[in-house]
Amino acid sequence: MWDNARFLAVTLVVVGHSIQRLTGASDSAYVVYLLIYSFHMPAFAVISGYFSKPGPPNASQMKRVLTDILLPYFIMEAIWTVVQFVVTGSQDFNPTKASWTLWFLLALAIFRLVLPYLALVRFPLLLSVVLSIGVGYFSNVDSTFSLSRAIGILPFFVLGWQLKGWGFIDRWNDATARASLWIRGGAVLVFGVWIAVIVLNVKEFKAISLHHWFFYDDSYSGMDATVWWAGAVRLGGIVLTTILIAAFIVLIPRRNTAITAWGQATMYIYLLHTFVLYPLRQSDLLKGDDPPALLLPGMILAGIVIALVLGTPIVRRIFRPLVEPRAAWLFVDKEGLKS
Fold first, then answer.
1. Cα separation of 327 and 259, whole Å?
2. 115 with 54: CB under 8 angstroms?
């Protein structure tokens, strides 16, 4: 199930980025965009939290943080610096400010760092929600090291970790066919209602840039929400996103499917798709006040195809040194570590 969920979630990421430039001129594109952004990255955080261990990391786990998260981050950040220099002439190399999608790698590193401490307190999920709401009141907590986003979506990571302890997913996997049908029917209804709400209020949501509330990358004042109760809006967003993630998870096939194998390639798809889309986003194809009617479905299909291609074995084999660097040279041997 989880491999299916990983691939579908990363495909939503690619589709969202594929249609982003269309949202200004197309209400239909904004509907799809807002639907995706209202839950897809928090869903990734839930999945990551589910497979995280709360205890103090051992040497092997600490090495994996370096090789699976931080080293790919610096490699991709360096590549992005070169790309932006070639395209725009920018010479700003600042690894403290993540380029485009790389913020999530830093967020994962922060999650792994704080989880052992959160696991010590009595109500870790409640504490993470308080931190997420509270950080929005501080304008000095910004995108440096992706701190604002990491704290913003921390509740979803903690929720994923606690879901495993609570055994909800095991009970879902053991649910009878009749119960599963009813639950999935409810999930379809949840998405149907949310889509209807977006469609009926699309112009108002676009006018207030509602999608910014689902980015978790800015303070309330930065989003022109200077009222004292702005935190209640974020809390409402957290509740809505949690409901959508629950609906998303129960709609995921629990058996192996044609897409299951792609679930092991999500990091490749996530890190590489931006390089495929960047030239397209810089071109004039997605610009203009009156995009062709078929451009939106075409870009959605293109996003799905890009995700499928980047998850193939040949792509993984070619780009493994960048996405999954072995980096044995980076570490001391066991004897050196003991001494």
1. 30
2. yes
* % of the chain at pLDDT higher than 70: 97
Q: State how far the Cα of 153 lies from the Cα of 160, in Å rounded to an integer.
A: 11
Contacts with 60 (C-beta within 8 Å, 6 or more apart), sequence order? none
| pLDDT range class, residue 339, cuts 50, 70, 90 | very low
- CA dihedral 165→171→173→179, nearest 10 degrees, is -150
**Which one, of 17, 9, 31, lies nearest residue 206 by Cα?**
31
pTM of the model: 0.92
Q: Return all residues near 121 (Cβ < 8 A) that are at least 6 apart.
A: 127
Q: Which residues contact 273 (CB under 8 A, 6 or more apart)?
A: 13, 14, 17, 306, 307, 310
Q: What tokens were used for 244?
A: 């959508």
- Distance, in Å, from the CA atom of 325 to the CA atom of 322, rounded to the nearest integer, reads 6
Whether the pLDDT of residue 37 is over 90: the answer is yes
Domain boundaries, the chain: 2-338
d(CA 234, CA 153): 11
DSSP conformation letters of 287-320: -SSS--TTHHHHHHHHHHHHHHHHTSHHHHHHHH
In whole angstroms, what is the distance from residue 109 CA to residue 307 CA? 24
Identify the bridge partners of residue 144 per DSSP, sorted by sequence position.
Answer: 97
Determine contact, residues 50/255, Cβ cutoff 8 Å.
Answer: no
Which pair of tokens denotes residue 135? Answer: 């950080």
Which DSSP state fits 284? S
Q: Does residue 234 register a pLDDT over 80?
A: yes
DSSP E strand stretches across 81-170:
none
Side chain identity, residue 70: L
